[in-house]
Amino acid sequence: MSHIVTVQTEVRDPSAVTAACRRLSLPEPVEGKAQLYSGPMSGLLVRLPDWLYPVVIDTVSGSVRYDNYGGAWGDEKHLHRFLQMYAVERARAEARKKNYVTTEQSLADGSILVEIEIGGQS
């Protein structure tokens, strides 16, 4: 039996952030401070392609802060792709902890289907 799940992502797992960056060929995330246009921020810094400022992730609160000036300082599709990959990596990590098997399939609409096999059933 299969189930459809909708995930609202809070970014709290530094390992999944690193794994998502690797899969997207982004620079390794680093803990630090960044001067965004709106002011200084501290957290895990993720550099997205062609973005003026890094994304700043507070893994304690799960919040993601960024300044892209409505797309003028960075295309939001890169942020959405990163968050999607973070959610995939987080789900896979949780499944591995329970020795479940995961498979992925990229769909035509850009989404990713992650199947988790529990005790021989998907």
Q: Would you kindly provide a written description of the structure presented here, covering whatever features stand out?
A:
With 122 residues, the protein is of the alpha+beta class. It has a domain at 14-90. It contains 2 helices and 6 strands. The strands form 2 sheets. A 4-stranded antiparallel beta sheet has the order 1-2-3-4. A two-stranded antiparallel sheet has the order 5-6. The longest helix is centred in the C-terminal third of the chain and has 22 residues, at 76-97.
Strand/helix succession: HEEEEHEE
Structural class by sheet pairing and helices:
alpha+beta
Secondary structure: helix percent: 25-40%
Distance separating the two termini: 7 Å
Biggest sheet character: 4 strands, antiparallel
* Low-pLDDT ranges: none
Instruction: Please report the number of helical segments.
Output: 2
Strand order of the largest sheet: 1-2-3-4
Shape: globular
Number of strands: 6
Radius of gyration: 16 Å
Q: Return the average pLDDT rounded to an integer.
A: 90
Strand content: 25-35%
Descriptors for this entry?
single chain, 122 residues, alpha+beta, four-stranded antiparallel sheet, 2 helices
TL;DR of this structure?
The protein has 122 residues and is α+β, with helices and mostly antiparallel strands.
Topology:
Elements: H1 14-23, E1 30-36, E2 39-46, E3 55-58, E4 63-65, H2 76-97, E5 101-106, E6 112-117
Antiparallel strand pairs: 1-2, 2-3, 3-4, 5-6
